[in-house]
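Example 3.2
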Amino acid sequence: MEKKTLIIGGTKGIGQALVEQLNGHDCYSISRSASNRPNHFVLDVLNDDLPEIEGLTGLVYCPGSINLKPFHRLSREDFLADFEKNVLGAVRALQFYFRTLKKNKGAVVLFGTVASQQGMPFHASIAAAKGGLESLARSLAAEWAPSIRVNIVNPSLTDTPLAEALLSTDQKRENAAQRHPLKKIGSPSDIAKAAIFCLENDWLTGQSIGVDGGMSTLRV
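Structure, written as tokens:
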């Protein structure tokens, strides 16, 4: 059967790398940014009408946020914005595409964060949102088995436009690299490869996969 995969957030960073590397897949993408790629839809996944895509075999939800503040400075609006983008956007897409994914025994890949595995200062809002997304992934993996596989990839800091402010100087990049056991930051390609593995391995579901340079598990 032809593989037909929808990447939500497919014009930048990890989503763009995924579109470029998904050989053998008929790729569709959704984002708020325009693209010259075929089968691309410009819309807000939280608020706009989603396109019907028959025969869908995979869905990857890439949108995320990096909102780093001391806990006492995080407002209710900060928590709500992170939860809406990271969790409720995924919920809306998964509910909309559930029937076609079930019909085609599809696969879902979500993106969490190393900060929901390892406590990090100033990450309270994003860790709470992504931790909720990880729990959602496991719940759906159980509820939707054996028809739909659901896995989550948890990156550490990755060289994407989202992380631009954290990597804006050579010193910042070096400091970030040194915090990881592998002494480098991740690339979009590194994370996309893990997502492709999750899409294509038919005996993988309910898993949380750390692609984080060893940060979540190693002390060196």
